[in-house]
Amino acid sequence: MSRVFNFSAGPAVLPKEVLEQTKLDLINYRETGIGISEISHRSQEFEELMQQTESLFRSLLDIPDSHAVLFITGGGTQQFSMIPMNLIAPGTIANYIVSGEWAKRAFEEAKKFGQVHLAASSEDKNFSYIPKTISLSKTPCYLHYTSNNTIYGTQFASEPEVIDENGNAVPLICDASSDLFHKPIAINKYSLIYAAAQKNFGPAGISAVIIKKELLRVSSETLPIMLNYNTYAKNKSLYNTPPTLTIYMICEVLKWLEAQGGVKEIHKRNIKKASIVYEALDRNNLYMPHAEKSSRSLMNITFHLPSEELDKKFISEAAKQNLKSLAGYRAFGGIRASIYNACPEEACYKLAEFIDAFPKMHA
Amino acid sequence: MSRVFNFSAGPAVLPKEVLEQTKLDLINYRETGIGISEISHRSQEFEELMQQTESLFRSLLDIPDSHAVLFITGGGTQQFSMIPMNLIAPGTIANYIVSGEWAKRAFEEAKKFGQVHLAASSEDKNFSYIPKTISLSKTPCYLHYTSNNTIYGTQFASEPEVIDENGNAVPLICDASSDLFHKPIAINKYSLIYAAAQKNFGPAGISAVIIKKELLRVSSETLPIMLNYNTYAKNKSLYNTPPTLTIYMICEVLKWLEAQGGVKEIHKRNIKKASIVYEALDRNNLYMPHAEKSSRSLMNITFHLPSEELDKKFISEAAKQNLKSLAGYRAFGGIRASIYNACPEEACYKLAEFIDAFPKMHA
Fold first, then answer.
1. Model confidence over A192-235: pLDDT tens digits?
2. In the annotation, is A256 catalytic?
3. d(CA A330, CA A21)
4. Of the candidates B182, B177, B171, B223, which has an alpha carbon nearest to the alpha carbon of residue B66?
5. Strand partners, B120
6. Among A14, A39, A80, whose Cβ lies nearest the Cβ of B35?
7. Which end of chain A is more exposed for a tag (fewer CB within 10 A), N or C?
8. Does the model's pTM come out above 0.90?
9. CB of A207 within 8 Å of any CB in chain B?
10. B321 touches chain A (CB under 8 A)
11. Catalytic residue list of B
């Protein structure tokens, strides 16, 4: 079988060019006679690779000097712990917007490490919308939100604007695991923005954390060493052995993104790709998109059919057309089409065609 | 350039067969039309891969049902924190044997989380030997040791035998990051044995922890979620997205190991490989092996030449003969030849030849 259209929510489709280059470099990286997964992380070649990866991160996202870029082995869930462990100062309260399952888990995890406050939630309508009204606690140390809610298919159109009771802007922290690199953003609005790699910029196993350098002063030296942001900041993310192959593949994805014209160009494509699919859903009465229109995600499109049986039928018939990994999140069901940066426009056209054809055949 | 002989201490050489199979599966895994780094960790194919990986772990190491096998994203350093965080019970003291740099870091890290005791050390002679006399504290909760000391090239020939003041065996914890799978061991002697993958069984980014199931009762629910062993034990190491490509490659390495005849056969080869190199060192007066003979490692062979200049000359001339990554650990210098399972016998013969030839040419 040749390659199919893969709508997996993550680990997700990677550009074919990245996979083809990886095949070569697995055997012999840069004429060293050693494969990229076998090369020492202390070698000149690997140190250069780390530099290039950080440099591409900075140029593609236009990251100012005020912010450090850290590569931390582990996923987003580890950040749910690291953020409060590093950043809740005594007497301050961590604020959370709960707009989905992962946002909720971040909030629940933070309770272990300090005082927390629920600043907004959309759980009342099963996370089908992005909360608009934010109610901050006193002495907030940060506001944490999830820019894109993978399970429910909702997305913040822009950063929440938050000013505390004294008129000061509250440090903003964002879990951008499923939409970093999908459009240009103003990094200086964030005190910390993080993302696991496996949706928009690489294979699973690592997260990137972009953190305002002045925040690095706060962490206590009593933290577990790999859960202290300073361990990464002081050692260029090379305190211990990082996942070298994963970092290499991230670098290849970033090179690919640059070759596509960067984040501005990919954003245009993402808007077009999403509209191809949403328009097909909207012109067919059978489908029930989950997200309110104003909260729709460009990355994950979620919908149900009128019965669980039809959901399953849709997924299995789509698979026969080489449209794969369309099942919704385990606990949520329905259909989810994840169309991250590396998902080609063609996949969206094929899916839209199938969305149009399915009601005539099966409903 | 074709492939060279790679003596890197980790990330280390992988079997060529594993790399060739990975090339194919990167594009299309098991005829799914999706590459192994892009497939959902909730897919049937990946769940089967996890089961196969655990199953091979169990059969190759003959792991009894009393022990769980956990796959934890991150390296050995993260275990330096997790072990004391999970396992030091109030009123008990964690005992450490400090036989090298990593052992020392494990000991230092544990101080953050409870009472610790230095049960033995070989720092007096720059870690050139394995300590024989162990002096336990009162109420020891465990004894931690490092079976192979990568930097210094020493290795425990067998587990330290320890009985506390009441005649009870103290739970034994072992960092086997650089020698798991190099020979058969009796897993039931260990309460916990762990290893990062990047030396003997895969690419960097993940560790395996083999833990006696009864120990899982001890961990506090207040721990950071990804630093609690129960998170992994209760979810078959699939609580969150694991490094899927890395796990796939581990499975391929284990299949390769099985095809070689398993751990017993590989041990014979490791003994032979090491003796080829040690004998060459011993028959040439120029070389100063670091480890005492009775403490020599089968995995990492370390030695110095009479001057730093000659060390460098040895490394650069060896590289010209395609014998690469022979530089010693940064802070220790000298030469280090790491000859893990995947290092072919041919590499050891070539290195021995070079060891014999070098004094005639350059010293």
1. 999 999 999 999 999 999 999 999 998 999 999 999 999 999 99
2. no
3. 34
4. B171
5. B97
6. A14
7. N
8. yes
9. no
10. no
11. 102, 175, 199
